[in-house]
């Protein structure tokens, strides 16, 4: 049985961890390296950094953060945000990231996925899909969830896999920061479409939401931000709840 992963996500803007609701209303929460180190010690299976400012200055800040994190964190970590070229991927991996995530640039140029996967291996390439529900299904949103690409999210997931991505980070724009639970319908639709691992993101508000998404979908990992950053619940509490409900999980 595959061991499910619990992943804290740190949205980073101008060198600080921030969090909002439905991708807006950001508030500053702390230092990313310090928070990542604490999560690593607390039993996180992986850590994800997303540079949500994605400016040239922000990307340079992110490289510095990645270097510091690589020296202080001993679990795999993924970095995304502002990745537009193969040089950006190279820079982040050389700085110490285990995986690099891409979103808007991959939508604009799917060959970036293929090129990155061919050069560094599929295991290093994570494609983030921010999806929002419309009358005709789910659309892929870009630019921090603000622009509707018009692309069907399920079809895009298929393309992402075909181009060589090793993993999908799936975020529901509708449930992001709402804390009412993961978007089960969206998550199941994507997971049932592809063979590569999928990380569920967006909407977690309590430990019970983790076993719920693991039980109702075949997702490989689940991610949260608010409940960890605000010290509402610990990673251990989440893992204990998963174990109690029969989910195969690593101990914290």
TrEMBL record:
Per its record, the protein catalyses:
5-[(5-phospho-1-deoxy-D-ribulos-1-ylimino)methylamino]-1-(5-phospho-beta-D-ribosyl)imidazole-4-carboxamide + L-glutamine = D-erythro-1-(imidazol-4-yl)glycerol 3-phosphate + 5-amino-1-(5-phospho-beta-D-ribosyl)imidazole-4-carboxamide + L-glutamate + H(+)
What biological process terms from GO does the record include? Answer: L-histidine biosynthetic process
Enzyme active site: 11, 130
Chief subcellular location: cytoplasm
EC number annotated for this UniProt entry: 4.3.2.10
Protein's UniProt keywords contain Amino-acid biosynthesis? yes
Q: Which family does it belong to?
A: Belongs to the HisA/HisF family.
Protein name, per record: Imidazole glycerol phosphate synthase subunit HisF
């Amino acid at each position: 049985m595959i061991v499910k992963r619990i992943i804290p996500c740190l949205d980073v803007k101008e060198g600080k961890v921030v969090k909002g609701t439905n991708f807006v209303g950001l508030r500053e929460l702390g230092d990313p390296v310090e928070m990542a180190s604490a999560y690593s010690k607390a039993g996180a299976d992986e850590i994800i950094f997303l540079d949500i400012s994605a400016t040239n200055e922000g990307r340079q800040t992110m490289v510095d953060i990645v270097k510091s994190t690589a020296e202080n964190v001993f679990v795999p970590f993924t970095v995304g945000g502002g990745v537009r070229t193969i040089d950006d991927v190279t820079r982040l991996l050389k700085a110490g990231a285990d995986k690099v995530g891409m979103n808007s640039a991959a939508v604009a140029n799917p060959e970036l996925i293929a090129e990155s996967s061919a050069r560094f291996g599929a295991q290093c390439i994570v494609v983030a899909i921010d999806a929002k529900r419309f009358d005709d299904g789910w659309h892929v949103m870009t630019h921090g969830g603000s622009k509707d690409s018009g692309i069907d999210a399920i079809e895009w997931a298929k393309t992402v896999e075909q181009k060589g991505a090793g993993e999908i980070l799936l975020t529901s724009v509708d449930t992001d920061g709402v804390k009412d639970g993961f978007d089960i319908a969206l998550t199941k639709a994507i997971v049932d479409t592809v063979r590569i691992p999928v990380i569920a993101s967006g909407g977690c508000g309590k430990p019970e939401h983790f076993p719920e998404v693991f039980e109702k979908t075949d997702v490989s990992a689940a991610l949260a931000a608010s409940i960890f950053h605000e010290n509402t619940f610990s990673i251990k509490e989440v893992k204990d709840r998963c174990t109690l409900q029969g989910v195969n999980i690593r101990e914290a």
